[in-house]
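batch_manifest entry 22 of 60
target: Corrinoid adenosyltransferase
source organism: Roseisalinus antarcticus
requested by: lab member K.T.
priority: normal
notes from requester: please return tokens only, no post-processing; we will run our own comparison against the previous entry in this batch. if the run fails, retry once and flag.
--- input ---
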Amino acid sequence: MVVLNKIYTRTGDAGETALGNGARVAKHSLRVTAYGTVDEANATVGLARLHASEEIDARLAAIQNDLFDLGADLCRPEMEKDAEAEYPPLRMAASQVARLESEIDAMNDALEPLRSFVLPGGSPLAAHLHLCRTVSRRAERMTVELATLETVNPDAVTYLNRLSDWFFVASRIANDDGREDVLWVPGKNR
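--- output ---
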């Protein structure tokens, strides 16, 4: 259970923050940047939810919860010490990836195959979902880079990869099942 009764602590005033294992690191460390970008992605999902139908909103709410799980996973380094921890760290699970894949497949079944790349836009929901897609891709890039330097849960990386695909397919659903997609026309304005 998390209890937050004081919002500012002054412990980060010198440019450091605490990870989930208590270690202090620079706020600009790659690990903090990765989970901070996951938090940013979560905020963009909150904006998308303002425009979502009840069904899509419920799926986006589940994604927001997953993104908090992902942040908790990324803020806790040293996976090899998980068994020694007083409280087992929260880690992303393959079942969360499988849920995204199942939802992507179900949404994609309603869509015609693409014949061009899609420009971000269309309906307000689609535009916000494209923003979610690009921020989650950035979080993925940062997490993949972190994984070249430190141990990272592979399910965390896979989740981020599927998540951006989920946002893309959902944006097409939000554009009248792709009929209102804004298509790229190569060289149109030459």
